[in-house]
Amino acid sequence: MNNVSYLTAYLEHSKGEHKQGRPPVSGHNIIVGDQMDKAIKSVYETVKARDPNQPEFHQAVEEVLDSLGPVISENPEYIDVVQGMVEPERVIQFRVPWYDDEGNLHVNRGIRVQFNSAIGPYKGGLRFHPSVNQSILKFLGFEQIFKNSLTGLPMGGGKGGSDFNPKGKSDSEVKRFCQSFMSELWRHIGADLDVPAGDIGVGGREIGYLFGMYRKMANEFTGVLTGKGLSYGGSLVRPEATGYGLVYFAREMLATKGKSFDGATVAISGSGNVAQFACEKVLDLGGKPVTMSDSSGYIYDASGIDREKLAWLQDLKNSRRGRIKEYAENFDGVEYTESKPEPNHNELWSTKVDVALPCATQNEINGAEAQMLVESGVTAVAEGANMPCTPEAVEVFLENGVLFAPGKASNAGGVATSGLEMSQNSLRMSWTREEVDQKLEGIMVNIHKNAFETAEKYGMPGNYVAGANIAGFLKIAESTMAQGIL
């Protein structure tokens, strides 16, 4: 019997004695806790040994496992679920050949990580970016398991993409790439199997090309992709959903301290879809967004990014595909700061604000930058991107009493609305904007309530990281056990 199986049997025996009313022997709880920690550590060490060059994936696994000790103590049989959960059910890798406008051949790599389907078909976005590799997609897919579980909708976790860079490519080149990508992926996905969506580098244009190729290859019209255009099965509010949901969650978090967005100064990083609609919803709730950024640098607008300025910025980024620097050149009194290479810190986070919403990319706030926010008096930080805060940053926030929402909870609005799009496709009907937004808000309120109450139940009040991880895990664990740990 291996060490972990031995631990399972030992903890089951100990748990049984406790249920029968027998007092534990001296030191019993300490021994159980120590053995439990060793078992969880053993799972993590196995992950690292099996895939030693996947740091982003290691980080995501460690962050979740750090939260699960109390659950494993109560349910020792769940250690077997944990062992299976950290390994994807399937990873599909394939080549993607395509020709540019000059007739030159390029070959990119396509990957789809189908991580966990215990509660529903795999669900998660496709990312087209030069940084894409298995580590990043496994980290995103692993996070997606818990995020999707928290929504309460029947969706498993997955992620995919390619190291293709759509920036600087013509529409024709993007179309040829998407068609080549889908000519292989189509055989591995389906409305009841795996339903991809968009992510970085994959917007409405790319989803349209991908869906068209799927329909041609599979000879069927089904809801196999979400984020589609309204004319062919898309949902209202889907583009806005992640940003809106982020702010809904942050609003609930602030309310636990008797605070709100009304009159609050807000720092937002990024200037893409999530950042834009987070900015819009902050304005709806009476807040004042003062920063946005892209890879070249960030702007600080002390007078606030109002609706007129936001509309101008949306045209800049979505239509003209310009740089954030142009915002500072167009509006008076705006400061622009260029990005600096490591080890310099991102000065955006030294801005004095009440709320911070990092919406750019993973690991954009490190420990030193988190300390900047603490010193500036920030009340709450909610992740709009996937894992934008390093473990050191999260520790700084928690140690200093800053309300902190992990992305798997606070940015779940996008996939929640994707799930609503799947429902509409299955029903062959569409809901109004008000209906979808109301359902989205309800889902985000419930995610907050679940994470908040779960953290309290397990003795970690206010710790949304632990609350979200445990709440998401419990649903997966119960489903996995019921189905026989396949």
Helix coverage percent = 40-55%
CATH architecture assignment of the largest domain: 3-Layer(aba) Sandwich
Structural class: alpha/beta
Main sheet strand line-up: 9-8-7-6-10-11-12
CATH superfamily of the largest domain: NAD(P)-binding Rossmann-like Domain
Low-confidence stretches: 1-31
Cα-to-Cα separation, first versus last residue: 20 Å
Largest sheet: 7 strands, mixed
Key terms for this structure?
486 residues; alpha/beta; Rossmann fold; 3 domains; seven-stranded mixed sheet; five-stranded mixed sheet; 49% helix; disordered N terminus
Explain this structure.
The structure is a single chain. This protein is an alpha/beta fold and 486 residues long. The chain has three domains: 3-87, no CATH class; 90-222, 3-Layer(aba) Sandwich (Rossmann fold); 241-405, NAD(P)-binding Rossmann-like Domain (Rossmann fold), CATH 3.40.50. It is built from 18 helices and twelve strands. It has helices at 3-19, 28-50, 55-65, 69-74, 78-85, 134-151, 171-185, 204-218, 241-255, 273-284, 307-319, 325-330, 367-375, 391-399, 407-410, 413-427, 433-457, 464-482, and strands at residues 90-99, 105-116, 122-128, 156-162, 194-197, 265-269, 288-294, 297-301, 334-338, 355-358, 380-382, 403-405. The chain has a seven-stranded mixed beta sheet with strand order 9-8-7-6-10-11-12, sandwiched between helices. Strand 11 (380-382), helix 14 (391-399) and strand 12 form a beta-alpha-beta unit. It starts with a helix and ends with a helix.
